Model the fold of this input.
Amino acid sequence: MNFQEFELSQPINDAIIQMGFTSATEVQEKVIPILRTHQGDFVGQAQTGTGKTAAFVIPLLEQINFKSKKIQALILAPTRELANQVYEEIKKLGKFLPLKATTVYGGVPYVKQINEITRDNPQIIVGTPGRIIDLINRKVLNLSQCHQLIIDEADEMLNMGFIDDVQTIISSLNQTKKMWMFSATMPDPIVKLIEKKFSKPKIVQLEKRISGNRNIKQYYFVAHRRHFGSALKCFIDANPDSKGIVFCETRQDTKQLAELMQRRGVSVAALHGELSQSQRDDSMKKFKDKRVDFLICTDVAARGIDVPNISHVFNMGLPKQYESYVHRIGRTGRAELKGTSISFVAPDQIRKRSAIEHFTGQKMEEINLPDANTLKKLKIIKELHKMENIKNAILSKEDSFALDPSFVYFQSYFSDLTKEQALKLLFTYRFNQEIRHIDESVFVDAPPKESSKRSPERDGYRSRDRNRNRSRNKDQRKR
Done:
């Protein structure tokens, strides 16, 4: 369905065009018409990454009275990152409207947020439950004219222990309010909340695709945990144009892996609970602005992250909750693009992998590390590509190519070497350390497993062949 068929106001249509949207997602196609006309409560069950934020922001903007300086809508999000994601979507879709909106969440001084509210008189507030309650108690938020409450990712609110706060906020609002709720799952406490607080809501349940996106190729590699970092570096090197998210189980794992990858020359940023809000924001901004290629984070820190064009998701071990696996890999393969997920599986997690496959209804293909020669070739090509423009300039300008006079000192150093000897010297100086790292990484001591699968050569991965590995290990022992 084309967005033009919704017959939206011109400012919102213009914003949608500028954002490059043409066809609505399934969520948007089903939800937008309902929310534009339905005067009562609403509950939508939809997975993350389906376009649900725009599905509720567009109808909300159509209903705001821009002449009023009162808070008319309150949007609750479970995390700071998700609150910022929703706020950014509001800014983009409301770009051509006289709209004022702001975010409030913990980790930021109260004074800054209080000043923004009192100075800007926002019509829409996006925030986390704890900070919203604090500002209500401080008499900063006047919600007497707030007739719209939107609860996003309600199941995550429950998982993070915010459900009581949500009920408190609901009770503090005007009795004539409308409530919209979105949740990927419907656990019993959420169902009870709906029954208790919602008035005959319109309910839309999209087909629950637990199996995940068919555009995502799912792989796994079995290794001892001590080798996860080296294996990750190999797969990243095998895909030099990749951009992705790496999920770790703990804050400490996140910190240590980020430090290891930085030492190995991988462009990464870390995101975990020990960072200050400004540090978290800086990590997210670097990742969104493509100043780093990978974001290393925990599940909690990653909630609400919605970054386009993520090619890879890596799991440093399988998550405890099966649905977390689905949510993790769902960061890639969006908007009809292809994505890849690679899970590093410890020997004690092999049964869990089988259970996740049963849960999702999809198989993960077993793979081996890329071979050393492939990694070395890719590394050299990548570095040579960086010199391509300079090489072409030298070839085209010949003797007129401008060089600093100090070049003569550099040139004289090679005067007693042949061309081939000089190239050997430069190659050894530039690549020896990295080649040694590659040789060390590809001999990860992977424990034997129960099966052998084949994965596509074109992805830069080799299938694990147990017999070949056994032969190689025997040869190494003989040496």
